[in-house]
Amino acid sequence: MAALEGCHCRGAAGGRSGNSGGSSGSILYSILKSDSRASSDDHQHQHRQQDALRRLVHKTATSSSTCSFSSSITTTATSSPSSSSSPTAPLLELRQQQACSCSATRRRRGTLRAPGVTCKAASAVLVKTVRFAKNVPCFRELPEDDQLALVRSGWAALLVLGLAQDRVDFETAETSAEPSMLQRILTTGAPDRRRGGGGVTAAPELSSSPGRGVAAAAAGGVCLMVDIQAIKAFLKKCWTLDISTKEYAYLKGAVLFNPDVEGLCCLHYIQSLRRESHQALNEHVKLAHRQDTTRFAKLLIALSMLRAISPPVVAQLFFKPVIGAVHMEEVLLEMFGFKVP
């Protein structure tokens, strides 16, 4: 409660009521007002955000070359293991085959087949994502430190939600699985001293864990196919559910106001905003989809799939060909107008 009293958003908090549809201060109205108002000032704001992107790209054009995509694209044919005809086939052997197949799949790497087209579409979605967050009054009234923490935590999930809403699909192409020795030296630095100085430490692999840094995601210049498939699986899930504009707005609110972020000043208030987002979504679904009693649960399941999507992978896949050596955090700070530390 003390944290809530210290927030700049006390007026908005006081305006909320138990009925999420009854108060103009509720997140239900804030998010929808944000989404509807976005279209009116779309062009002017989009130009400003695109200018910010262009300035950051210019800073790297003379300092370093952007990520180069591997020219040797290999096609892999996958065959499903045939089941044993004998009912007494050893279970251990089957598990070993599955483990081998899983390990090989996790090592597969890929990149965008048409990076120019896809990165341009992703950049446009990023502009819309930034505008969405900045137009939500509950977000703007938070202390800047809380705003920055929420942006750092949720930008990738919000972007992927935006890709789903705009139906941005993309094709990928597999690249050679292992980086060359030169790539390992360039991406990991000095040789491994534990091998007497002669060996080279292995390039850090991309992980599905959202906690990995951007530097780890950039290793090798490509993404693991398992991480790319996590993004594509989420997009397919959203398109299968045929999520409406209002549902996307409520889902974005639930992602933006994440009380699990460490160090939040207005923790209790942000918890209430997350709760209200879910309540507003549930009430809307009950009205719009009376026959489908499981739709709300399906939407929450889709939302949970975002946890498997790593922000460094999103930055690497969709923005490294555009911003080059610039860190994604610099782009976000510039676009949101935060002071660069």
Automatic annotation (TrEMBL):
Entry keyword Cytoplasm: yes
GO biological process, one term: negative regulation of transcription by RNA polymerase II
Boundaries of every NR LBD domain copy: 83-339
Annotated Pfam families: Hormone_recep
Superkingdom field: Eukaryota
Record keyword DNA-binding present: yes
Gene Ontology cellular-component annotations: cytoplasm; nucleus
Record key words, sorted: Cytoplasm, DNA-binding, Metal-binding, Nucleus, Receptor, Repressor, Transcription, Transcription regulation, Zinc, Zinc-finger
UniProt main location, coarse: cytoplasm
GO molecular function terms noted in the UniProt entry: DNA binding; transcription corepressor activity; zinc ion binding
SUPFAM superfamilies: Nuclear receptor ligand-binding domain
Subcellular compartments: Cytoplasm; Nucleus
CDD domains, alphabetized: NR_LBD_Dax1
UniProt region (Disordered), positions on chain: 66-90, 188-209
InterPro entries named among the record's database cross-references: NHR-like_dom_sf, NR0B1/2, Nucl_hrmn_rcpt_lig-bd, Nuclear_hrmn_rcpt
Family in the record: Belongs to the nuclear hormone receptor family. NR0 subfamily.
PANTHER family according to UniProt: NUCLEAR RECEPTOR SUBFAMILY 0 GROUP B, NUCLEAR RECEPTOR SUBFAMILY 0 GROUP B MEMBER 1
Name of the featured protein: NR LBD domain-containing protein
Organism from which the protein derives: Muraenolepis orangiensis (Patagonian moray cod)
